[in-house]
């Protein structure tokens, strides 16, 4: 599959046929799901964590979302607006969405276009720290000509106008519930952030951050025959090993997400006969992000901000050498087996177009590069130095066995080129959480390099690539919710992002996207490692699941049901 032909497909009519839930609403009892990276908020606009977005997706919904093939489906609308059906204006500056008739929030009130307008205002409010701000790039207004119609107005032509209100990262918020939560007040609205009123098949009855979410059927859900389950529990915490065992060996849970384990371990567990492993490739890439700012504690509140460039990693030779020392094929083999592919790119589906030199480990070349850049071991202690500063790095990531294996072998490879590495691992619920007060979040980045996986929903990467524009750097001013974790800034990259936003046609957009991918990789902003398939497991008697790498894995939970013998 080439990059170009993965661009957006759209289903113009009603939803495609999905597995039907058995019997009547709520008749299948309890559903138990294990997300070992525990959700810490139910508001996707205040977190960049996949586990938070997915937990929220049972309750909060967008206007449109993606199916497992990457095709856009109408969700809270009957038809996706396009140029062909008149929903997108000829000048590409306006897209008109029309809500389904009779939509209601879980509290019984009507869903209206005013809720869409408010959601836009909420995410773009000054100092609100919206983690999904790029979804609303170039939006200057959301007009509401009537209660069911919302017109998103852009400041420039948008050949791909499906950022706002599309996908699990950009759902609709109820204006009445979040009215007093704009701007700096956004993270203080605990009741709303932990128990949002939504349109999804379930509503939250209990939320304990970092522990458990309990849901019951939404009595106002638009399909009176669904969902089949009366109650859902998402349990958080533990490890990927424990999650896999709970489904595949003990049968305590019905579904376990993100089983980041070696393939031989998963195979042995599946042989117990209680569950099935499922996987799907999408845009998920394991990578090492490089910090372009100085995380030194001595800088106080200014640490890891753009005011202070990194004293070591600002040198492109160091970033290049770190990448050359990696054996990506070995990482893929030991971590993921057939569910992983070594990659040099952040857009893995484009790998045939890219320079694949990074797939060959080159320790000797890395050493020579550092020599040429003046990084030498002046005192014979095995650690290179320059101008009185050692090549010493803090390497952080979340806690799980695969990532700790990656850390260990990477530390050894970097030792062989004269880099001393201190390893740090952080509980995944904290690392991927949205708490602006925590020093250990992926956005705060109080380390030199950090490892995590990132992906984009849908198949068009415009919003995803906008992540690395200059204005998206996390900072105290945006509640540390910016998505440009590396704090890299290049006006030439921003210019490409602006051009992509107004470029139409699959081939021209693909060309621009690949150029942006190449800038990120060649500048060592991120070091891509493995194109990862999503791997989860479900009980053998759980029907209706359809693992989805382009949307939330729980995207069709209204159709999940218990298989009766």
TrEMBL record:
- Check the UniProt entry and state the signal peptide residues, or none: 1-22
**Every Solute-binding protein family domain range:** 87-471
Q: Where in the cell is it found?
A: Periplasm
Q: Which UniProt keywords apply?
A: Signal
**Keyword hit for Signal:** yes
Family annotation (SUPFAM superfamilies): Periplasmic binding protein-like II (SSF53850)
Q: Which family does it belong to?
A: Belongs to the bacterial solute-binding protein 5 family.
Q: What is this protein called?
A: Peptide ABC transporter substrate-binding protein
> What species is this protein from?
Roseovarius pelagicus
């Amino acid at each position: 599959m080439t990059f170009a032909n993965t661009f957006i497909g759209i289903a113009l009519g009603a939803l495609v046929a999905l597995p039907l839930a058995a019997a009547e609403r709520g008749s299948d009892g309890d559903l138990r799901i294990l997300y070992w990276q525990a959700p810490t908020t139910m508001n996707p606009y205040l977190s960049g964590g996949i586990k938070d977005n997915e937990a929220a997706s049972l309750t909060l919904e967008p206007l449109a979302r993606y199916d497992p093939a990457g095709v856009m489906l109408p969700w809270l609308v009957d038809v996706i607006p396009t140029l062909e059906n008149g929903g997108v204006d000829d000048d590409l500056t306006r897209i008109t969405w029309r809500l389904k008739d009779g939509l209601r929030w879980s509290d019984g009130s009507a869903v209206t276009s005013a809720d869409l307008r408010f959601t836009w205002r909420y995410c773009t409010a000054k100092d609100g720290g919206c983690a999904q701000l790029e979804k609303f790039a170039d939006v200057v207004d959301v007009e509401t000509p009537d209660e069911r119609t919302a017109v998103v107005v852009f400041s420039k032509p948008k050949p791909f106008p499906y950022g706002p209100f599309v996908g699990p990262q950009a759902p609709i918020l109820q204006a009445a519930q979040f009215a007093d939560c704009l701007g700096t007040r956004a993270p203080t609205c605990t009741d709303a952030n932990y128990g949002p009123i939504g349109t999804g098949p379930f509503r939250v009855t209990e939320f304990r951050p970092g522990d458990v979410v309990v849901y019951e059927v939404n009595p106002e859900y638009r399909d009176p025959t669904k969902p089949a389950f009366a109650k859902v529990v998402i349990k958080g915490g533990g490890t990927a090993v424990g999650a896999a065992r709970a489904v595949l060996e003990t049968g305590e849970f019905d579904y376990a997400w993100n089983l980041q384990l070696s393939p031989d371990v998963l195979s042995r567990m599946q042989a117990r006969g209680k569950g099935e492993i499922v996987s799907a490739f999408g845009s998920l890439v394991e990578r090492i992000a490089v910090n372009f700012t100085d995380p030194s504690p001595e800088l106080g509140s200014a640490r890891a901000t753009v005011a202070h460039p990194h004293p070591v990693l600002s040198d492109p030779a160091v970033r290049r050498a770190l990448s050359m020392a990696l054996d990506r094929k070995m990482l893929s083999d030991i971590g993921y087996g057939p569910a992983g592919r070594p990659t040099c790119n952040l857009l893995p589906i484009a790998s045939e177009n890219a320079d694949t030199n990074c797939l060959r480990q080159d320790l000797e070349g890395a050493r020579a590069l550092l020599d040429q850049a003046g990084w030498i071991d002046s005192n014979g202690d095995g650690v290179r130095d320059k101008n009185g500063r050692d090549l010493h790095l803090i390497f952080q990531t979340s806690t799980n066995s695969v990532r700790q294996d990656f850390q260990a072998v990477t530390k050894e490879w970097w030792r062989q080129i004269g880099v001393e590495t201190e390893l740090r691992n952080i509980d995944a619920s904290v690392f991927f959480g949205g708490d602006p007060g925590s020093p250990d979040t992926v956005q705060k980045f109080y380390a030199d390099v950090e490892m995590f996986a990132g992906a984009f929903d849908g198949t068009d990467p415009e919003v995803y690539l906008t992540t690395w524009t200059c204005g998206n750097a996390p900072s105290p001013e945006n509640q540390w919710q910016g998505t440009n974790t590396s704090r890299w800034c290049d006006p030439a990259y921003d210019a490409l992002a602006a051009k992509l936003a107004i470029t139409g046609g699959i081939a021209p957009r693909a060309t621009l996207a690949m150029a942006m991918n190449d800038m990120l990789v060649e500048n060592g902003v991120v070091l891509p490692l493995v194109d990862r398939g999503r791997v989860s497991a479900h009980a053998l008697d759980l029907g209706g699941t359809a693992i989805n790498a382009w949307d939330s894995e729980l995207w069709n939970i209204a159709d999940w049901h218990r298989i009766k013998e």
